[in-house]
Structure formats: C-alpha cells, structure tokens
Amino acid sequence: MTDEFVIVTQALSKSYGHSEAVRALDLSVGRGRITAFLGRNGAGKSTTIKMLLGMIRPTSGSGTVLGNVINDSKESVALRRRVAYVAEDKPLYGYMTVEQIVRFARSFYADWRIDSEKQLLRDCELPLRRKVKSLSKGMRTKLALLLAFARRPDLIILDEPSEGLDPVATEYLLQSLVARASEGSSVFFSSHQISEVERVADHVCILEKGALLMDASLDSLRESYRRIDLVFPALPAEREFRISGVQRIQTSGRQMSVFASNNADEVIERAHGLSVVSVNVTPIGLRDIFLETVKENERALV
Amino acid sequence: MALFFKLAPTSGQPLYLQLMQQIRHGAETGALLDGDQLPGIRTLAEELIVSPNTVAKAYSELEHEGLLELRQGSGAFICVKRRTQSLTDRVQASRRKLRDLIDQLREAGLLDEEIHRAFEAELTHPVLAVKKR
Q: Which of A20, A52, B21, B81 has the CA that lies 20 to 30 A from A68?
C-alpha cells in the first residue's frame, strides 16, 4: 500500500464548530505521478493539505504520508523531512535577505542540491541582497518555490503554487515541477487553474465542499467524456438515452445534446437506431468536466 | 530537435497517444529517419511541459511497436524497418480510397461539414471498433 501510494487518507474529516471543512475524505495519491488537487476556493484543499502535514489536527479519520501516520507528532516530523511543502501564503522570514534564507533552508535538509539551488537562483533572477519583506508578491512566490525545488524530496506538496505568478513565471513553475517529477519526486499540488492542471497532471482529484467528487487519470477523462449533439426528424423520448455514463440531456426542438462521462458509442448507436439525421461528437475539456461535476453535485444535494 | 511536437490538452485524446501519433507521422513522412535520436524523457517533458509519464508511456509503446529503440542512458532512436516504410504506401493507398469515398458522398449530396461529422462520429471509440472486428 505504502509503495503504491505516497498519500492515503481514510474518512479524514475536519469540522470547525458546525461547519464541515473536510468530510470523510478517502484520498489515495499515487507514487511517481503528478496529481492535481482541484477545487474552488474554500473547497477544503488547504485544510486537507495542512492535516496531511500535521499542521491541523483532524476531527476524525486517519491518514499516512510516505507511510508516516499524520496525527502522530513524531512521525509528522519525520515526514516533513521527506516532503517539500510550499504553503498558500508563502510564509518566509521577512528580516532575512534572499541569500540568507536560502543558506538557512539549506542547513535543514539532507536532500538539498547545491547545483539546483544555483540554477534556480540564476533562472529566477532574484535579488540576493534584498530583504524578503521588500520582495514583490511574484518574487516571494518564486523564492518559496525555489526553497522546495532545490531539494530532492520523495514528495512535493504545493498549495496553489501559481497564485500571483505572471504567465512567464507560471510556465517556469510548471517546467520545474516536471523536472522534479522526472527525477522521481511525486507531486501533489492544489490549484484552481484548470489549464495548467490539464497540461501537466497525470491524475486529478476534485474536491467540492470538503468531499471528493472525482479521482481519475486525465487520460481516462480525455478518452471517455464526450458531448454528443444529435438532430432527429422527430425528437425521441429522453429516457431512450438514460444509460449509464449519461450525466445530462438537454433538448431544444429536434435537437438533443447529451453530456456523457462514458458510453458515448452506445449513445451514438442508439441515436442511429432512432434514425438520427446528424451526429456531432466533441470531446469535453477539463474545465467543462469540472463545472458539470460541481453542478451535478449541487443538483444531487437539492 | 527539428521536430515540433504539439500536444492539445483539450482535444479529447490522451497526450501520450498524441505524441505517439506525431512521432509515427514523423517517421512516415520522412521527417524522422532511421537512427534519428529523440530527446530524452526529461528533456522532452520539460520542453512540452507535460508529465514525464506522458513521454515515457509514448516512448515505451512505440518501442513495443518497434518504431523506437530505447537505449539505456542514451535515449530513444527511431528505427524505421521496411515494414514501417510500406506503411507509407498503405497511407498513400488509403488516401486514394478516401478521396473516392468522399467524392461519392459529395455526389450523394452530403456537404463537407456533414461528411466531417460522420467521420468523427464513427471514429469516436477506435478501441471498441477494433474489438468488434
């Protein structure tokens, strides 16, 4: 189990008073993969990540990161040595200069790589002598990421890493992330930037209102999600298309639009059986899959 | 690298398949010749900004097909045997067939838009189509 997965949680939950931030989360993050943790603001992504790192105590449930139990304080220290983590708000000591903080961080980790540090410092064009508190938001983010990427950890956990970065810096972030993954680090990063997730991730977990709505490989999503637009001489009953995988059907006049998470070929087969005039099949991007999944969840809750 | 791979994340096809097709296409058209070296997994992943697993999967599938030879430590090499070259002829032959078919469909009164849609609909699930045969 621990060989296959770098993160495993069982019914992990966190409540603040009456509000449930994370509900019975069963998460399994595969080793050697780039996994994106996608969700709206306030979906519970940061709370989950902080529980994984022992920074927040779960209300109930359990979990392991790299085989270490997350709510055991000793094991939590051990796991933090093997995990590089960049928090959402990128907290750094403001009174240190860039050079000082890099030296400071270097002293903590056995997996620090001086060649990567040099390369990253060059690429990021950070002003070495400037104090952290007077860095711009973008520079600060770059510095926080540098401190994680200069290591060779087993696992990298990033909370909204691209927040506040311009497109050029985002591109560099994704490239560095790919480089670390190539060297064998597993990556788990939260984001609400769908386009970056779609390019770089192997796997996506969608969190909504503290619950896991989807856990799938991007390849399987690409292969199976289809929108099928049909035109009939006379519109057949919707129930003809209520098969497994069909999430939503919309009709207008003689047209029918079917949103299918699976089984698109069966939908097309049935349409031909009902003398369809026109069939138009289009793949569905992650943005629409995300929106549709969140919407469907809301309909189910009502 | 002289080849320009272009992956479309929203195209509805797994990225490793897109990469495989583009390498295969390169070999069929002669843009890639026997013995040509492809970038290493890490280099190509960083260049395309995709997961290294995407490149690794494409390379290993192509090795399985015999179009690539992976040499440990030194990268991936194109290996175009006669069998693959005859694919060029097959592609040429199918092109003629396809043209004839399209001509017939046009004569039958179908508009190009409709022909396009019909092809796409029939191609939706290539894996299943193969199984049925």
A: A20
Average pLDDT over residues A122-128: 89
Interchain contact A134–B (C-beta under 8 A)? no
In chain B, residues with a C-beta closer than 8 Å to the C-beta of A182 are: 41-42, 45-46, 52
Q: Does domain B15-80 have CATH number 3.30.420.10?
A: no
Hey, where are the domains in chain A? Answer: 5-218, 226-283
What is the Cα–Cα distance from A103 to A106, expressed in whole angstroms? Answer: 5
Examine the pLDDT at A1 and tell me if it is beyond 50: no
Who among B53, B118, B124 is closest to A202 (CB)? Answer: B53
Tokens representing residue B80 in the block = 């175009």
Domain ranges of chain B: 15-80, 91-132
Note the ipTM here.
0.86
- Residue in A with minimal Cα distance to B125: A265
Q: Which CATH number fits domain A5-218: 3.40.50.1000, 3.40.190.10, 3.30.70.260, 3.40.50.300?
A: 3.40.50.300
Say if the Cβ atoms of A222 and B118 lie within 8 Å.
no
> Using a CB-CB distance cutoff of 8 angstroms, which residues of chain B are in contact with residue A263?
none
> pLDDT value at position B119?
85
Among the partner-chain residues A178, A268, A286, the one whose CB lies closest to the CB of B52 is A178
User: Tell me, which fold does domain A226-283 have in CATH?
Assistant: Alpha-Beta Plaits (3.30.70)
Mutation for B interface: A35, A173, A200, most B CBs within 10 A: A200
Contact A283/B at CB under 8 A: yes
pLDDT in tens, chain B (133 residues): 446 888 988 888 899 999 999 999 888 888 888 888 999 999 999 999 999 999 999 999 999 999 999 887 778 999 887 555 566 677 788 888 999 999 999 999 999 998 988 888 777 655 443 433 3
Contact A285 B10 (CB under 8 A): yes
